[in-house]
Amino acid sequence: MAPLPRTQTQQRWALGLATLTFTLCFAHWMLLAIIGVHLQQAWELTYLQFSILLAAPILSGALTRPLLGYWTERYGGRRVFGLLMLIAATATGLLSLISHYPTLILVALVMGLSGGSFNVGLTYLEGWYSHEQQVRALNRFAAGNVGAALTLAGVPFLLLATSWQTVAQAYGAILALMGALFLCLGRDAPAINRQGQPAAALASYLAPLKAWRVWRFSFYYFFVFGAFVALCLWLPFYLVEVYQLPLTVAGLITALYATLASVLRIPGGWLSDRFGARTVMYSSLGVSLLACLLLSYPPADYVIHGLRGDIQFRMVIELPLFLTTLSLLGIAMAIGKAAVFSHIPLFYPGRLGTVGGVVGMIGGLGGAMLPLGFGLLLATTGVWQSAFMLLFVIAVVALTWMHHAIRTAERQEWRHQLHRRDLPERYEQACGGNTSPGPALKKA
Q: Which CATH number applies to 8-443?
């Protein structure tokens, strides 16, 4: 049975509705980053308890992504998207009624299911778009990360006028309304899946995960997305403590960073199409490495013993330089996120939900693990900039792994007298439609 035709109007409606839904879900996923400050004060939480509270929704949102993608392929995005939002909204509404810390963590874990909406949207839209259209559509959908900016910029000002309990209830109500609207107005792709056959068995669905390439892509995403989420959680406190800014100003700065790292994902997809995802990934990791190196430099006093006496001077990253470098890091992460997901439909056509789910899960785990790493390094070293030192090390590992894999593939290509290539579709064009992957592609 061949897939039924899809009109452009239907595709645009599916993309627009999914993007709006993901934007609200991502805004909801970041909610505890702001109201968590008030929860810490009200509950007198320790820093460890507070860190666990921040990590809980990020962790559940990451770990559930592959399963949610599988359910979406089997049961359709309309039902999974709608029910997911209703469950997360219910947990958010209960937040103000809790009186025990373990219950608070449990509710935060359920709230975090909204973070799994990314993979639901990927699988949902995969059925609406052809292989050639998927990369562009999915990068537009993924720009819904800008929902983080809505929370980071708006909630601090809402908290000046009302309580955190009211804000939580409002977020729950909005998410529940969107879930109901998606159940009513959403529509699954005309065919059951791309081939018009029942969804694959779980073993077949997970088969691509045996390839090392999938885990390499996942590590790239651990940095470009995981560090993005981690910084959205960490930056407000960093700016308040290091630069003594008010929480409202720190929230606005973090929102600017989140906006750059989200909206510019769309031109990042265009750059990947134009110059090749591998080239764009090189640029993203290289710029990120340099930015993290600069941001990791702590304030330091120097004494040079000269012929005419000591020369003393101080080096510190002032706020204007910090903001400029942070903006550059956000731009690099945006195009890096687009480049990672530009690889997947080309290397693994028909398995976007599987591979994208695992890549997204590892990225989300980065968002949960890195803030804990930031706190541990801060407690150990007493240096606030140690957070960026950790990101610098991760960027170095990612860039080194990528370069090694590419050079290994190129050596095999030269040995077998094959043309150098950036991605499979470019090689197919050069070979006049010959789609044989060859030994190098299997390694790359």
A: 1.20.1250.20
